[in-house]
Design a protein that fits this description.
6-stranded parallel beta sheet; 7-stranded mixed beta sheet; alpha/beta; 26% helix; 9 helices; binds zinc ion; globular; 17 strands
């Protein structure tokens, strides 16, 4: 098969690779569309110890079952593969399974990803493509499930309903925009501010999201003003902004994985009883709920997604890296 292979830092090569072999309890998917995620970019920069080259990246995938039980069925994949038998898996928190692995990762276990013609996946990770969702848009289900999980994890801890809160979203990439869209359109929250240093990207997001958009250093971002802050970036500077802007008793929801360490005002967290919630991926239930949200068109138009050919994937990665790409999401078509 043809695949876009991550071979070295900032290097992707479109070349021939071995076809995946059919295993027990799995199916082979002929991939139609595969989205570029922030975590793929992290690997591309050589900064992900779970994704070591050579590797086929990509985990936001739709396609058609090519070999397996239900050949010919149109599907969207939940790329988070878990053991199914540990306490977490049995209690609806599969995403915390100690044996979890995502497609397009090779540490600790290898699972080739979706920037290719074919991929192998356990049957239990396969979902039927919802009727009202197109094959090429469907990879958005994965990042949308990440955003839904983050929003609902925060919502559980709030002392008042989500729509009554002032919310700051840091980062106008796909996860920031999707969090904003879920907050605004699904949770009816009308008091949203979104910040991003990239003007073009911010403007693009604001075409679809009912929010106030600013640069992170804008005077309009008031300290101790927000009940909930979503940090979809995860840099030391964005965490510091989160802690400056959060109100006493507020909740910081931390999604970004960019920078693992850094200073943080733990004193303020303590004195003002700030709740800090780390959030990762989604449960199977979140994934199913996301498919229903997308099928019902609850987050509105998905025209903010840009599409490219898989063989032009390397150029797409480069554009995202250089910040010249304004689209919050690029999906590669195979
Ligand atoms: Zn992703
Ligand atoms: Zn498990």
């Amino acid at each position: 098969m043809q695949a876009l292979v991550y071979t070295d830092t900032q290097t992707l090569i479109y070349r021939k690779e071995k076809d995946p072999q059919l295993k027990n309890g799995e199916s082979i998917i002929k991939i139609s569309a595969s989205g570029i995620c922030g975590s793929d970019m992290h690997a591309y920069h050589g900064k992900d110890d779970r994704r070591i080259p050579p590797l086929i990246l990509g985990h936001e995938i739709s396609g058609i079952i090519n070999k397996g039980k239900e050949t010919g069925k149109k599907v969207v994949l939940n790329p988070l593969i878990t053991c199914g038998s540990c306490d977490y898996c049995k209690n609806g928190r599969e995403h915390l399974c100690g044996k979890r692995i995502i497609l397009g990762m090779n540490k600790p276990i290898e699972r080739q990803g979706g920037f290719a013609e074919y991929v192998s996946i356990p049957d239990k990770n396969i979902y039927e493509l919802p009727l009202n969702l197109s094959m090429k848009e469907a990879p958005i289900a994965e990042p949308c499930a990440v955003a839904l999980h983050a929003v609902e994890l925060g919502e559980k801890e709030l002392s008042k309903a989500m729509h009554n809160n002032k919310v700051l979203v840091i980062g106008a990439g796909a996860i920031g925009l999707l969090c904003g869209l879920i907050l605004s359109k699904v949770k009816n929250c009308k008091n949203i501010v979104i910040v991003d240093p990239n003007d073009k990207r911010l403007k693009e997001s604001l075409k679809y999201l009912d929010a106030d958009g600013h640069k992170p250093d804008s005077k309009n971002i008031i300290n101790e003003h927000f009940d909930v802050v979503f940090d979809t970036v995860g840099l030391e500077t964005t965490r510091q902004q989160a802690i400056r802007c959060i109100k006493p008793g507020g909740i910081i929801i931390h999604i970004g994985l960019t920078q693992p360490n850094g200073n943080f005002d733990f004193r303020k967290v303590t004195l003002q009883e700030i709740m800090f919630i780390g959030t990762y991926c989604y449960t199977n239930k979140d994934f199913e709920k996301t498919l229903s949200i997308l099928n019902n068109k609850e987050i509105g138009s998905l025209e903010w997604i840009e599409y490219r050919e898989l063989k032009e994937g390397s150029a797409a990665f480069k554009e995202i890296h250089e910040g010249s790409c304004t689209a919050p999401k690029i999906i590669l078509l195979i």
